[in-house]
Amino acid sequence: MSEIETTRHAAGEAAALDVLGTAADWAASGRKLALATVVETWGSAPRPTGSHLVIDEEGNFEGSVSGGCVEGAVIAEAIDVIEAGEPKLLEFGVADETAWRVGLSCGGRIRVYVERLG
Amino acid sequence: MRLELLKGLNAERKARRAVVTVTELKSGEQRLVREAEIGLDPLAEAIEKAIRSGKSGMAESGEGEAFINVYLPPAKLLVIGAVHISQALVPIARAAGYDIQIIDPRTAFATPERFPGVALHAEWPDVVLKARPLDPYTALAVITHDPKIDDGPLIEALRTGCFYIGALGSRKTHGRRVERLREAGIAQSAIERIDAPIGADIGAATPGEIAVAIMASVIEAFRKRKMFAERRGEEAAA
Question: Which ranges carry the XdhC- CoxI domain (chain A) (predicted)?
Answer without folding.
Answer: 26-93
